[in-house]
Every structure is written in structure tokens, then in C-alpha cells.
Amino acid sequence: MTAFNVVILVVVLLLVVVVVGAVLLGVRTLRRLSLAPAPEDPAFIAEKDRQEQSLAALRNAADEANSTIDVAKSAAAAARTEAAAAKAEAKAARAEARRVLDDARAEADTVLERAHKQAEADAEQLRATARRSGEREVAVLAATTREQAAEVERRAARMDERERLHTEEVERLAERERQLTAASAALAAREAALLEREQALAEAEEQRRRELERVAGLTADSARAELVESIEGQAKREAALLIREIEADARGTAEQRARHIVVDAIQRVASEQTAESVVSVLHLPGDEMKGRIIGREGRNIRAFESVTGVNLIIDDTPEAVLLSCFDPVRREVGRLTLEKLVLDGRIHPHRIEEVYDLARHEVEELCHRAAEDALVEVGITEIHPELVTLLGRLRYRTSYGQNVLKHLVETAHIAGIMAAELRLDVPTIKRCAFLHDIGKALTHEVEGSHAIIGADLARRYGESEDVVHAIEAHHNEVPPQTIEAVLTQASDACSGGRPGARRESLEAYVKRLERIEEIAAGKLGVEKVFAMQAGREIRVMVKPEDVDDIGAAVLARDVAKQIEEELTYPGQIRVTVVRESRVTEIAR
């Protein structure tokens, strides 16, 4: 039953009680009036009228109560109807809830059963794991206990042996003490006899000395001075001979030891021989790609050579093209550019410039990574980031055909082995040897010897004075003053002088091409310079706003004349000055 039904029922009951009370009161009043005598008194008549009015009011109240009861009954009937509908809904809801509850219980039983099974399986697995772990721990504890028991037994045996030895030592000491006591007594008697003998010898010595002084005509002090002078001269001659023998022996031993250290260091550093080349080969997916690389009327290959400065040689070699350039960094950038263009398939001048920028950044990243790998291989951890960047440039730099970065790693290993043999500071000497050619990264940009340039760089970026001195002294521009500088020179000579390490002819060829580019780059208005065709052609890119057509002709003649005066070369060198104007507009 709802709260509304309860309220209605209470109201109906109150109205029934009021109506019943009013009816009873009216019946009692009528009965009193019927039993009373006929009144004739006006007051009685007024009272009678008042009572009749009250009875009428009670009848009206009873009628209103009846109407209210009827309304309440209708409301109660409606409420009962609603209650019956609610009961039906509640019954249906309870049935649905009972069904859902039964399904949930069934599903819960199923899940619980699976959970019990899984728990039993997990528990069984855990018990098996715990049993195996316990067995292993018991076995380990048993082994440990056995070892400890054996150790205790060994210690007890050692203690027994020590105690026995101690007892024997005590007995020996007691016997020795008795012997010492007897010897002391004998020694005291002997000392007394010796004292008497010494006194007799002193007297005899004094008599002999006086006799010698009388015979020789010299006092004891004069004879002693002559004897000391004679012995001193003899000792000096013998000392000079001994020093000469020691120096000769030390020199021979030092040379043999130094030779052993150098040979051992070279033997333990197994580096590959030089395999430097000025040509790179790029394999193509098919021969039809050669036509796309050349482009319409050769515009693609001209744009590629102008942008990269690398000669692109396309011959009858199947599915391959050659890239030729004396500068290995430039050649690697060109190779990556052409490789990306072939993979992409879109080859035109504008695309060549975009891919060239990407390849140049990629080569810079490869150089940085190569420098970090070299530092890890050598074992150097703390170094200035700018020095790391400069070391990365040496990844493609060569010296007489030998890769400079590999030469630095090899030199550092040789110096470290020598320092270890001589018991010196290995990290510092390896650092000196690894950084000794750092100046070669800037030889195109700064004038001067690479040793002096490298020393200035090391000093600028916080290297110690020992490292700086070793760098500037490794080619004797500065006399070496420390052992670090001497070992740096020795390890550099070992790395560069081993068989197959360097090629003189290739280095001279590269030097000539570098000098050709330097001559042209030093002219006013020059933007880029590329020595191509193995040095037989030099292409000079000038700024069109700084050099006009007449100035380009003058520039070509000046460059050719300076090359003729300064360089020696076979055949002839063609100087080509390229002046290009570009106008770009954007359609919006």
C-alpha cells in the first residue's frame, strides 16, 4: 500500500467519526425534545430554535461529509485501481528480477566454478613452483652448510696445526734462551780477553807507527792525505769506466726495449690497408633509368653536375653509373642525391636541388655519428661538441690515401699501448694522439699548418696544455717538451708508416685539385667552384649581380693564367665560368 492510499484511508476514517458523532448528538437532542413538556416560555422557544438550527447545520455537515466520503471512495477506488496496476507491474518486475537473478546466479556459479578451477590450477602451479624453489633452496643451503662445515673443519685443523707449531716454537725459544745465556757468559769472558788483546795491539800499533814515521820521514796525517789522493784518482778512473759501460748498456737496452714496445703496439693494432678511390658506382634498377637521369637534351645531368660538383659518367656498363670527384664528402653527397632521385623516380632540376639539400644534411648526420663511434672506440667521453663536429668532417678526409678519422683511432690505440707499456697516463696520451690531426678539418678555411690550427682549436675548446702541446709539436713546428708529445709523434709515425697505409700519388693528385679550386674560389664574385673531369675542367659559378658577361670572360682568363703559373699538370685544363640569372614569381 502506497503513502497516498494511507492518507486517503485516514481522512475517510476521520470523516466517519465526525459524522457518527454528529448523528449521535442529533439523536440525543431529538429525544430530549420529545420527552420535554410543551414549552411556552420564550426562552425555551429560542433555545429550541437554536437547537433546530444546530441540527440543520449538523445535517448539512453530514451531507457534506457524505459527499466527501463519496469523493474519497472514488479516489480510493482509483487508488486501488492504480495500486492493482502497480501490484501487477511490481509482480512482473519481481518475476523479471527473479529471472535475471536466476540467470545471474547461474552465470555466477559458472564463473565461480571456472575461477575455482583456475585458482586450483594456479595454486597447483604455485605449489609446484614453490616446491621446486624450496628444493633448490634446500639444495643450496645443504651445499652451503657442507661447505661451511668443511671450512670449519679446515679452520679447526689449521688452528690445531698453528697451536702445535706455536708449542714447538715456544720450546725452541726456551732452548734458544738457554743457549743465549750460555753464549752470553762465554761472550763476556771472550770480551774481557779481547779487551786485553786490543790494549796490547794498540800499544804495538803505536810503536809501529812511530817506527814508520821515523823510517819514512812523514807524519801519519801526511801519509793519509797522500793515500786518499791516490785512492781518489783511481776511484775516479774506475767510476768513469763504469759509467761508460752502464751508459752503453742502457742505450742498447733502451733501443731494444723501445723497438719491442713499438713492434708490440703495431702488432696489436690490426688496421686495414688503404682502399681510397675517386670513383663511386651506383647500381640502377634498369638501363632505362639512364635516359631519365640524362633528361631532355641533357638538362638533368647538367643540373646534377652544377648543383653537386660531381662528374656523372654514364657509359655502356649495364645497370650502373659512375660518380667521379676528388672530394670524398662531395662525392658521397652526390651519390646519396642520385640514389634518392632514382628511388623516387622524379628527376628534374628543381627536384635535384631539393634532394641535394636532404642528402647534404644526411651526410652531416653520418659524419657526426662516425665521430661519436670513434670516440666510443677510443674511450673518450668528455669532449666539446664543436670538436665532435670537426672530427665528423674527417670521416671522408684522406691524407696520402689514408682515412684521417681511422688514422686518428689507430694512432690513439698505438699510443695507449705504448703508454701502458711505459706505465704512463694512458687516457691523456690517447687523447693527445686522437686529437693530433683535428686541424685538418679546417685546412681549407684557415691558413697555416694543421698542427698549429689544431692546437688553437684544442686550446679554444678547453683541452689541457699537455694535449695542446702534443698537437702543435707532432710535426716539430714546436719542439716537443713532454713525454705525451714524443709518444704522439711516435704513434703518428707508426700509423702512417706501416705498409699499405698511404699512397703518395693519390695525395698529390688531390692536393692539385684542391689548389685549383682554391685559386678560383679566391676571385671576387665567385659563389661555388668544382674541379671536374679528373682536374681537366674547372667550373666556376659566379654571382650574376656581381659579375657581368665581360667580367666572366676576364675571370676565366685570370684563373687560367694563375693555374698555368702556379701548378704543374699533364695536358690542359678548361676553365668554364657559369653565370646564371633566375627570376621567380609566385601566382596567388
TrEMBL record:
Where does the source fall among the domains of life? Bacteria
Q: Which InterPro entries match?
A: HD/PDEase_dom, HD_domain, HDIG_dom, KH_dom_type_1, KH_dom_type_1_sf, Ribonuclease_Y, RNase_Y_N
Key word Transmembrane present:
yes
Q: Which PROSITE patterns match?
A: HD, KH_TYPE_1
Q: How does it sit in the membrane?
A: Single-pass membrane protein
Q: What is its main location?
A: membrane
Q: Keywords of this protein's UniProt record, alphabetized?
A: Cell membrane, Coiled coil, Endonuclease, Hydrolase, Membrane, Nuclease, RNA-binding, Transmembrane, Transmembrane helix
> Where along the sequence do coiled-coil regions lie?
48-221
Question: Pfam families, per this entry?
Answer: HD, KH_1, RNase_Y_N
The UniProt entry, under Gene3D superfamilies, shows: Hypothetical protein af1432 (1.10.3210.10)
The EC number of this protein is: 3.1.-.-
Q: What compartments host this protein?
A: Cell membrane
| Residues annotated as transmembrane | 6-27
- Does the keyword Disulfide bond feature in the UniProt annotation? no
Give all residue intervals belonging to the HD domain.
404-497
Provide the family line. Answer: Belongs to the RNase Y family.
Described function: Endoribonuclease that initiates mRNA decay.
Q: What is this protein called?
A: Ribonuclease Y
